[in-house]
Amino acid sequence: MIFHVDGNGFYAACEALFRPDLTDKPIAVLSNNDGITIALNQSCKDLGFKRGDRYFEMKYLYQKKGVTVFSSNYTLYADMCTRINMIYNSFCPDVEMYSIDESFLFFPNWTNVNWNELGHTLRNEVAKQLHLPVSVGIAPTKTLAKMCNKLAKHRGGVCYWRDLNTDEELKKYAVKDIWGIGRSKTLLLARLNIKTAYDLKHFPLHKAKKQLTIQGFKTVQELNEICAIDKIQDPTRKNITCSKSFAHGVSSLIELETALAEYVQLAVTRMREEGSACKFVMVYIMTARSYDEDKKDKEYFNGATTQLPFSTSYVTIILKTATSLLHSLYRPQYTYRKVMINLLGLEKDITIQPDLFETETKEQREKHKAIMAACEHINTKYGRGCLHTGTRNQIKDTQANGKKADWIMQRNLLSPKYTTNLSDIPVVY
What we know:
The chain has 429 residues and is of the alpha+beta class. The chain folds into three domains: 1-141 and 420-429, Alpha-Beta Plaits, CATH 3.30.70.270; 165-233, DNA polymerase, domain 1, CATH 1.10.150; 240-393, Dna Ligase, domain 1. The protein contains 13 helices and 13 strands. The strands form three sheets. It has a five-stranded mixed β-sheet. Strands 9, 10, 11, 12 and 13 form a five-stranded antiparallel β-sheet that branches. A three-stranded mixed β-sheet has the order 3-2-4, with helices on both faces. The protein is globular, with a radius of gyration of 25 Å. It starts with a strand and ends in a 47-residue tail after the last helix.
């Protein structure tokens, strides 16, 4: 049996966790640079607000309606995600973390278990230990478990597939809401007069494979209670990308180098957490897109890639290569809004294929690994970015007058890092 557990308004719930004064009050969480609304709790939704609302348009309406607004605090959300998955692992030995607020739990097909009761027990345990609301969908396949989870949000928090009149539920469930069925497939299925999950369930498999590709074929199988979408066994990525939009336009090469140094270190940290090394480095640089035809000449988007002489996870080598690419792309007449680093050709750091003409010796490689391990230990102990490359210090994050560097992401409504920063731990009087 498969459980799909999803946090209800997860970001908003995390923000309310240390603010008891916000209990049952409307909360909205904004995207990077405080651009658009990406998460809301139910109280906020009940006021008519929705995800995708642009903050600058809704700012005064939020104030009028008493909505508390937060900038995205991903450090807090990631830490709560770790804690909530520890609870899941105490219930089930086989857990797949699907996203920061969603996980699949794979239970053996026990015959003497009350699955509905187990779902409520899990939900209550999360509420007891973390005070976070979750919904639990229980079904024999991942697609049906996702469907049950959506139903559970309006049915007491837990929904078990076997307790439903399954055909009637499928007839009421729109095909566009099925996991894995995107907009293009929805339009295609509409032309085939397939409008509900029930219709798709009875779609012939040979036609599904031809019309909907292998993913659609598997979805039809899953609707028929045949497990076709397996657990992701190897989470190692094929590439790692890191970028953020700047708060303000940047035209200085030095400031772009500073931003790039920050993103390279983040990308390398993620890569090393997976035990990987990269063979290719790619850098993109871009201005803001103009929707005024008279200003199209102020747009500039470009990218460049280079192959390293050997696969590596040493941040200095990767940053030197990325900086060289940035110099080749930079044009002084433009104002940039984003620089992006992409690490490609990933392979396991312990099984790197050597090259006949390789210039890095085994001793050098071991030295680089030792340096990176020491840096990561210090950053883990004293905080991310405590130890970094010199390039990262070319432009100060905050100047003497209090003004932040243009490339620093704008988060004017950021809450404290309650669980990961000693100075932000709440004080009880």
